[in-house]
Amino acid sequence: MSTTTLPPTEKTQPVAAPRGTISDRSRAERKLGWLLAGPAFVVMLLVTAYPILQALWYSLFNYRLTDPENRSFRGLGNYAVILSDGLWWQALLVTLFITVVTVVVELVLGFALALVMAKALSSIRPVVRAAILIPYAVITVVSAFAWAFAFRIETGFVNSWFAWLPGITADTDWFGGQWTSLLVICLAEIWKTTPFISLLILAGLAQVPDVLQEAAKVDGATWWQRMWRVTIPNMKAAIMVALLFRTLDAFRIFDSIYIMTAGANGTESVSFLAYRQTIARVEIGLGSAVSVLLFLSVVLIAFIFIKGFRIDLAQARGEG
Amino acid sequence: MSQREKTWWIVGGILIVLYALFPIAWIVSLSFKASADIANQSFLPTSVTWENYATILTGSASGLFLPALRNSFGICLIATFISCVLSMFAAYAIARLDFPGKRLILSTALGVAIFPVISIVTPLFNLWRQVGLYDTWPGLIIPYLSLTLPISIWTMSAFFREIPWEMEQAAQVDGATTWQAFRKVIVPLAAPGVFTTAIIAFFIAWNDFAYGISLTSTEASRPVPAALGLFSGASQFEDPTGAIAAAAVVVTIPVVVLVLLFQRRIVAGLTNGAVKG
C-alpha cells in the first residue's frame, strides 16, 4: 500500500551561541544550563530512583511491618512466591485485558471525536472543546463513583433504563461477576481518558498538510482512501505518542478498581495487588517485589513501543 | 460544505457534549436525591433536596470532608508551585541554552512520567514512617512532585521554544546581563506558558488517589479523593451514596471552573507538550 507523506524538512535549531568563538561564554552557558535545570533533575531522581532502589532492596527480605524483629534475607524468594502464585498471573491478565480493550476503543472513539472537533463549526467549537476537557479534568475517583452508582442495583438507573435488553433485569448485579465488573471498569476508564487521546489526535490532524489532501482529492481519492493513505500516515507520530502514553497509563490502573470493586470477583490489577500486599497486609517484602515487577512490566512495554514501533519520542516532540 | 453535511457535524458536536457531560449530570442529580430516593431506579430525583450537601458541609461527614478539602487545596497548590518554579528554570535552560545533558533531562522526565505510582508508594510508606513524614503535608507534597514535575518540564519547554528569543539578545545588546534579560524580557513573555502549565500540574495533583490513600491516615493530611474512598467504608452515616455524590460535585467544581475559563490554553498546553514540542 502506498502512502503519501511530505519529505522531511530541516528542523530549525534554536538559536545557539556561535560555536568556537568565545569558549568562556560557552562554558558559562553550560554551567548556567545545569545550574538552572539541575534542581528539577535532582528532585525527579530523588522522588523516583531512590524509592525504586529501596523497593528493590526490600523485595529481597521477608519483612512484615507488624513483625520487624523477624526480618530476614531471602534473596529472590519473594519473586519465586509471586511468580508461582496464580494471583499474580490473574492480576497481570486482568490488567492486560483492561489495557488492550480500553486503548483500542479509546483510539477508535478518540479518532472519531477528533474528526468531529476538526470539522465543528467555529461557533460551537469552544463549547465542544470545553465539554471534552471535563472528563479529562474530573478526578478519576469521582468518575469511578459516578459509573459505579449508575450500575449498582441499590443506587443505579442503568438496569431500569436497559431492562428491554435481553439479560438485563432490575436485579442484574453488574458487580457480581468478573466480566460484567470489568465491563463497567472499562467503560469508566474509556469515558475519562478518551478526551486526552482525541485532543492529541486533533493536534496531529492539524499538522497534516492541506496540500496533500487537496492533491489526493484532485486525483479522485475517496474519503476512506484519503484517510488511510494520506491523513493517518502523516500523523503517525502523534498517534503513536498518544498510544504509548495511554497504554502505560492504562496498565497502571488503580483508582477505578479500588473504588468500584476493591479487587473483588477477579478484578484485581497489578497495581492493586501491590497496594494490597504493602499497605493493607503490611507485607513490605512481598509488596515491594510486586512493585518491582510492576515497574519492570512498564519498562518492558515502553521498550517494546519505542523499539518495536520505532517511536522516536524526541523527534515526535520536535526535539530531533 | 453542504447544509446537510453541516447539520451532521453539528449533531456530532452535540453528541460529544452529551458524552462528556452525562456522567457529571448523573452525579449532580444523585447528589440532590434524598436518602429514601437514592434507590428510585431513575436518573432524576423525585424531589430536590440539599440534605447531602448539609451532611458533608455541616453534618456528620463534615469532620471527614472539610479538612480533606483544605488539605487537597493546600497540598496541591504547594506542589504545583514548587514544580512550576523548578521546571521554569529547567525549561528555560532546555529551550534556550546550549548545554550537554538536555536530552538526558527530557528523557528522565519522560521516564518519571511513566513511572508506576504504586512502585513508589511501597517504599515511601515504610520510609515516611521511619522519618516521620507519614500523614503530613510534606509527605504528600514530595511524592506529588513526581507527578507534576515531568509534565511541567515538557509542557513548559514546548511553550518556551515558541518565545521570540531575539528579544532577549536585543536586551543583552543593550547591556542587560543574562539574568536581567531573563527576568525583564522573557518572564513576561513566558508567563502564559507558565500559567497553563500550572493549571495542568494542578489537575494532576488534584486527581491523585494512590498517594493520598497510602501515605495518610488522619484529617491532618488526607486529601479529598482519599476521603471519598473512605466514605464508603465509614459507618458514621447509614447510606453514604448521597454524601459521596455531593462531595464529588464539590471537588469537581474547581476543575470545571478552570476548564471553562482556560479551555483554549489547556488544550494548547496538553497538545504542545505531547505532539508539537
TrEMBL record, chain A:
Q: Where is the composition biased (Polar residues)?
A: 1-12
Region (Disordered) residue ranges read 1-20
The processes (GO biological process) annotated in the record are: transmembrane transport
Which CDD domains does the record cross-reference, listed alphabetically?
A: TM_PBP2
Indicate whether Transport appears among the record's keywords.
Answer: yes
The record's subcellular location field reads: Cell membrane
Task: Tell me the keywords, alphabetical order.
Answer: Cell membrane, Membrane, Transmembrane, Transmembrane helix, Transport
Per the record, the major location class is: membrane
User: What is the membrane topology listed in the Swiss-Prot or TrEMBL record?
Assistant: Multi-pass membrane protein
Which Gene Ontology terms of cellular component type are present? plasma membrane
Stretches assigned to the ABC transmembrane type-1 domain: 92-305
| Similarity comment text for this entry | Belongs to the binding-protein-dependent transport system permease family.
* Descriptive protein name: Carbohydrate ABC transporter membrane protein 1, CUT1 family
List the source organism.
Answer: Geodermatophilus poikilotrophus
From TrEMBL, chain B:
* Gene3D superfamilies attached to this UniProt entry: MetI-like (1.10.3720.10)
What SUPFAM superfamilies does UniProt report for this protein, alphabetically?
MetI-like (SSF161098)
UniProt topology in membrane: Multi-pass membrane protein
Please state every residue range assigned to the domain named ABC transmembrane type-1: 69-262
- GO CC aspect terms: plasma membrane
Compartments it resides in: Cell membrane
Q: Name one GO biological process term.
A: transmembrane transport
Q: Which domain of life is it from?
A: Bacteria
Q: Which UniProt keywords apply?
A: Cell membrane, Membrane, Transmembrane, Transmembrane helix, Transport
Q: Which InterPro entries does this chain map to? A: BP-dep_ABC_trans_perm, MetI-like, MetI-like_sf
Q: Where are the transmembrane segments?
A: 7-28, 72-92, 104-128, 185-206, 242-262
Q: Could you say which protein family the record assigns here?
A: Belongs to the binding-protein-dependent transport system permease family.
Protein name, UniProt field? Carbohydrate ABC transporter membrane protein 2, CUT1 family
Source organism of this protein record: Geodermatophilus poikilotrophus
Q: What is the lineage of its organism?
A: Bacteria, Bacillati, Actinomycetota, Actinomycetes, Geodermatophilales
